[in-house]
Design a protein that fits this description.
Structural class: alpha/beta
Strand content: 15-25%
Number of helices: 32
Bound molecules: iron/sulfur cluster
CATH topology of the largest domain: Rossmann fold
Helix content: 25-40%
Oligomer: single chain
Distance between the termini: 19 Å
Largest sheet: 6 strands, mixed
Number of strands: 29
Number of domains: 3
Radius of gyration: 25 Å
CATH architecture of the largest domain: 3-Layer(aba) Sandwich
Length: 759
């Protein structure tokens, strides 16, 4: 255990980038890749969905974790058929994600026949026959589920939803169901728009940035460049998080082109000159964000009463919103006692935040999973919106809302129709363009799909990318659900646990990665993605595919559609497969805001989708932004219970584990750790290094994991943290956010007890 860091990036980020890239891809190949990463007609990063600068891009337009993600995909190591003859599926299922991922790139389609113990190579032609036979023998199309991970391109996503709906179901769960679904639901209700309302310049020009439930240092590192610029122009930052994450406290920018001179750059790095971030760090109690927000707004109202001049933006409130009076009455009814006990913060801390908010003429609030994966996530996000409406902090420069998306095209997939419901305009245009009727029944979200598989209502599980099992909650339950299926199919680049915890039959379909040239149809194809801030741009691979048996996601979907739908044809799948421009033409006709897509996506840097709230246009039923009242539900804990949150380590992207190091938190060599507050360690009769068992109870059902080491950490009292997916077995499939059904991976009540010495 080394000392935890007080700042993010710096020299170490450069070393780590260099090491990872060189080791995995080779120096020259790696350098070529990095010089193309996030360039205007280069490779769009396959990790998070941070937005690229509109103006000139720097030569190093990436962060350490973007470099790790691209290097991890472009490894030279291969998993070939001899590997699968060496290991049975049962043996592979004993391996963890880090080991499976480190075996290298998949090279051939593999099939696990019913009753067999080993995967065997199979031809693409046979692949589609097996899938077609399995799907077409289902009693109803709703017995199949088609999952999408956020790596899927817009072109593949559009074709996928078209195929699935032509097949006859809306069972299109995606990884957004497990991450920002709460944001989409909350924002759509409040302002009629489920996405970020800002652009990069708004962060740089904000007088105050509030960062809630987010760890930019690891999960959106290039965000820190813009936080630094905001600080340099006098902006302030409030960080609200149970953990004092390095990327919230400070930053040393490792990009030389962000400095006036190389000398300044070198001195900054060598002398570790940190740009301080948080002006106010609030170690909120896990699940206490709504209470904090209500306290901040209540303090604002109290300030307004004492202030000679208005603090609230009454012109904006009167002209653009509704529900203000009811909301004020609600705030006045909430007691400070409830606010302080639920938030775990002091009155002074909340009042200081209110003063900073009132003094700022423009405010941006950014949030991520620490807000969205809670029972009351939707209500909490609506209180973030309420806070912004009180002072008109939306639709003006330097102000707005930013749910920071964690996977490169998770937002684009939703825009392309990957949704269990369907936007009425999208539906109408899709039916008109392709002459078929979209199924009426809303599809299964991720949690509903797992339950349906577990209960035998779903028999085929098809995943376009991702690592469903390790991303999902309630690991043992989800394992059983997958094993219950007649067929499970993974379209992936590398092995993961979902490929080895299978249905009775299973297929692994190796696809091209973002880094690889796509010569489908005999010509160089490109794909496109949408960033957190609605920027749509192209991505083109540069490397020769690692195996001639790889196929693009678009090709796999098109061929599957031909095999499954046979003569139910209203789509020329073959032409679409061979010319992605035809897919983009269809996107232009069907997807709102994507008109003239082929032309606009070829513009350097792509284009931005419409963003009505930026013009203070609120597409709600009343045309006004809504103050919405939600009530704090105090979280009661037994005296030996803690509130546990699940987190990512720095050497991890979603469920892809690069190493067992987490340098910002001072951890190395093991991921089986639980971060606890020193007072709780003492109170529970534990000590640093104790080996413990962690038990959660939900609706009377116990779940436990053991063999974790206690780590002393300055986390908020009565709170603890563990890495996912290791902690996911503790999260009940029934424990979900209201309205969004997002798993509550950020709040689980647990008991921590010493376990018999396991050494
Ligand atoms: S900030 Fe996100 S998108 Fe940008 S390089 Fe890093 S991981 Fe990739």
């Amino acid at each position: 255990m080394s000392k935890r860091k007080q700042y993010a990036a710096g020299l170490q980020a450069i070393f780590s980038t260099f090491k990872e890239t060189t080791l995995k891809t080779g120096l020259l190949r790696g350098t070529r890749l990095l010089l193309n990463l996030n360039q205007k007609d280069g490779i769009d990063c396959n990790a998070c969905a941070w937005t690229d600068p509109e103006g000139d891009r720097t030569f190093a337009e990436f962060c350490e974790n973007g470099a790790k993600a691209i290097a991890d995909e472009a490894v030279r190591r291969k998993v070939d058929e001899s590997f699968f003859s060496r290991y049975s599926v049962e043996e592979l299922a004993e391996k963890d994600d880090k080991w499976l991922n480190s075996q290298g790139r998949l090279t051939k389609p593999m099939f696990l026949a019913e009753g067999e113990s080993h995967y065997k190579p199979i031809s693409w032609e046979t692949v589609f026959r097996i899938i077609a036979d399995e799907l077409n023998q289902l009693a109803t199309p709703d017995e199949a589920v088609f999952y999408t991970s956020g790596r899927t391109s817009n072109e593949a996503a559009f074709l996928y939803q078209l195929f699935v709906r032509q097949f006859g179901t809306n069972n299109l769960p995606d990884c957004s169901n497990m991450c920002h679904e709460s944001s989409s639901v909350a924002l759509t209700e409040s302002i009629g728009f489920g996405k970020a309302t800002i652009r990069l310049e708004d962060i740089e020009n904000a007088e105050l940035i509030i960062i809630m439930g987010q760890n930019p240092g690891t999960n959106a590192p290039r965000m820190m460049t813009h936080l630094k610029r905001a600080k340099e122009s006098g902006g302030k930052i409030i960080a609200v998080n149970p953990l004092p994450e390095a990327g919230l406290m400070g930053f040393i920018d490792p990009n030389p082109q962000h400095y006036a001179s190389f000398k300044t750059y070198a001195l900054t790095l060598l002398r570790s000159k940190v740009t301080k971030f948080a002006d106010l760090y609030l170690p909120v109690r896990i699940g206490g964000d709504m209470a904090f927000l209500k306290g901040l707004m209540k303090a604002l109202l109290e300030m307004e009463k004492k202030s000679p001049t208005p603090i609230l933006d009454h012109d904006f409130i009167n002209e653009k919103t509704e529900g203000f009076q009811d909301f004020v009455a609600h705030l006045e009814s909430v007691s400070w006692e409830d606010i302080l006990s639920s938030s775990g913060l002091s009155l002074e801390q909340i009042q200081q935040a209110a003063r900073m908010y009132a003094e700022a003429r423009s405010v941006v609030t950014c949030w991520a999973m620490g807000i969205t994966q809670h029972k009351q996530a939707v209500g909490t996000i609506q209180d973030i919106v309420n806070l912004h409406l009180l002072r008109g902090n939306i639709g003006k420069p330097g102000a707005g809302l930013c749910p920071v998306r964690g996977h490169s095209n998770v937002q684009g997939d939703r825009t392309m129709g990957i949704w269990t419901k369907i936007n009425p305009i999208f539906r109408q245009r899709l039916e008109r363009e392709f002459h078929f009727k979209v199924p009426d029944r809303p599809g299964y979200t991720t949690v509903e799909a797992i339950r349906a598989m577990y209960e035998g209502r779903v028999k085929v599980f098809f995943a376009l990318g991702g690592n469903f099992l390790s991303a999902a909650p309630d690991t043992k339950y989800t394992e059983k659900a997958l094993r219950n299926c007649n067929l499970t199919v993974q379209v992936i680049t590398k092995l993961n646990r979902t490929a080895v915890v299978t249905g009775k039959k299973a297929l692994i379909l190796p696809c091209l990665g973002r880094t690889e040239k796509d010569l489908t149809g005999g010509k160089e194809q490109f794909v496109s993605t949408e960033s957190t801030m609605l920027n749509v741009q192209m991505s083109k691979g540069i490397l020769e595919p690692i195996s001639e048996d790889l196929r693009s996601e678009v090709w796999i979907i098109g061929k599957m559609a031909q095999a499954v739908l046979k003569n139910k044809v209203t789509v020329d799948w073959e032409r679409m497969i061979n010319d992605y421009d035809l897919i983009r033409e269809a996107i232009s006709k069907v997807v709102p805001g994507c008109e003239n897509y082929n032309h606009r996506v070829r513009q350097k840097g792509g284009f931005y989708l419409p963003n009505p709230p930026r013009e203070r246009i609120f597409l709600t039923d009343s045309g006004r932004a809504k103050f919405i009242v939600n009530y704090i539900e105090p979280i009661k804990c037994e005296k030996d219970e803690l509130l546990l949150t699940t987190i990512r380590a720095h050497d991890q992207f979603n469920t892809t584990i690069y190493s067992e190091s987490d340098r910002y938190r001072g951890i190395s060599g093991s991921r089986r750790v639980i971060f606890m507050n020193p007072k709780d360690i003492e109170r529970l009769g534990l000590k640093e290094g104790s080996k413990v068992k962690i038990t959660s109870t939900f609706n009377g059902e116990e779940r436990s994991v053991e063999g974790f080491r206690v780590v002393k950490y300055p986390i908020a009292e009565r709170c603890a943290a563990m890495y996912f997916p290791e902690a996911n077995p503790l999260i009940s499939i029934e424990s979900v956010a209201e309205k969004s059904l997002c798993p509550t991976s950020k709040l689980v009540k647990v008991k921590v007890t010493t376990c018999q010495d396991l050494s």
